[in-house]
Amino acid sequence: MDKENTKENRLFTFDGRPAFTEVMPLGLQHVVAAVVGIVTPGLMIAKICGLNASDTRLIIQTSLVFSGLATLLQLFPLFRRFGARLPMMMGASFAYVPILLSIGADFGIGAIFGSQLVGSVVVIVIGLFIDKIRILFPPIVTGTVILSIGLSLFPVAIKYMAGGAGNPWYGTPHNWLVALVTFAVVFYLNHFGKGLMKLSSILVGMVVGYILAFFMGIVSFDAVTTAPMFQMIQPMHFGFEFKLVPIMTLIIMFLVDAVQSVGQFTATTVSAMERKPTNQELSGAIMGSGLTNFIGSFFGSVPCATFGQNVGLVIATKAINKYILVFASSILLLAGFLPKIAGLLTTIPYGVIGGATISVFATIAMTGIRTIANEKLTPENTTVVGLSLAFGAGIVMSEGALAGFPEWVTTIFGNSEVILTTILAIVFNLILNQPLRKKKTNRETENLQKQVKKNASVPAPANSK
């Protein structure tokens, strides 16, 4: 009995040495939960920038490779500074998509990676001082920002469901049929599925939608047949363009994501490890993310960040063993060096992507609402949320509202509600809630303490003493 308990306990300790047969199913769960989210941002950016099939395949390859590398860096810190040594899955992030699509449409693919290069350096610096700037991003601010990210992605999903803006078949019934069938499968499995089927609802939905699109004659396999069997990723293929407006825009987004990452790492340690993360772990987490994105910008990788769905997996299973994520990272790295896999992913029609991701975007928005709702909805807090979203979303939805201003003003504030909403949420919160005032306790600390107390009441894994 003790031996069995010891075997089970290996999965619930970070440095345990479980058998491969124990690691494999849990690692595959992480791959299934993450892979669609990893490749889809690259597909969206490639389409908005008008990349050819070869370049689209390459950007997917690099996204897979650097998602694997970013995860490994969090597990095994470099120089004990870059990385958190915590069980966190990293991958190309949807949070950046609205900003990257805006930069790509207005300035091109080179401006995306030039801005990412500069922004990632700023992130590394932020990591050194994250404990000092977190006060600017209390839950009421981060919740508002996350909500604005979700809202900004809704039109993207709808346009994809309609077939992709600019497509000659845009808005036609056959695109909507593929999209709605995909959505229906995802919706059913999310709410009525069980086990692995529920966990992999997005992947299963995309497979069903893809098969339907194939029989409708929408899918072309030219990108697969022309792809080589093996190919290394290529440095400097997309080049750099350094332009002030995209750089400043992406720096703000990197700052927002850094604070969001702190929340994800905190949720992991509190709920799965029954402790709060140390300042060194949080600093390493942010600096590790910055280093990965710095190197990734040379190869054309979409910015990597924490994956909320994988955080949920770790919390649900309490399986924090590092070798589980090592296995998952190895699968991503292998797929990243096999262009035919990347080529197959580029054949996914717009409708399938839209039908699958609208649920993801809705979850992002609801995460923001949940974060806001967990705070006291005082008149000050409701003002912070309401006014920030009113200005941020209102200006974006009012075409030409900034027509009399210089072009850079429209680029920063008129194309995505995320940036203006973030800035205003910080400013309004500083004015109304005075977050810089030192307090003995705050709402976030209380919530963490309650969660730790709740987790402490759950029986420890077998073999614990």
Automatic annotation (TrEMBL):
Compartments where found: Cell membrane
Membrane-crossing residue ranges in chain numbering: 26-46, 58-79, 86-105, 111-130, 137-162, 174-190, 202-224, 244-267, 323-342, 348-372, 384-406, 412-432
Highest taxon of source: Bacteria
Region named Disordered: 442-465
Keywords per UniProt: Cell membrane, Membrane, Transmembrane, Transmembrane helix, Transport
Main location: membrane
UniProt topology in membrane: Multi-pass membrane protein
Cited InterPro entries: NCS2, Xan_ur_permease
Pfam families per record: Xan_ur_permease
Keyword Transport: yes
Family: Belongs to the nucleobase:cation symporter-2 (NCS2) (TC 2.A.40) family.
The name this protein goes by in its record: Purine permease
Species assigned in the record: Enterococcus diestrammenae
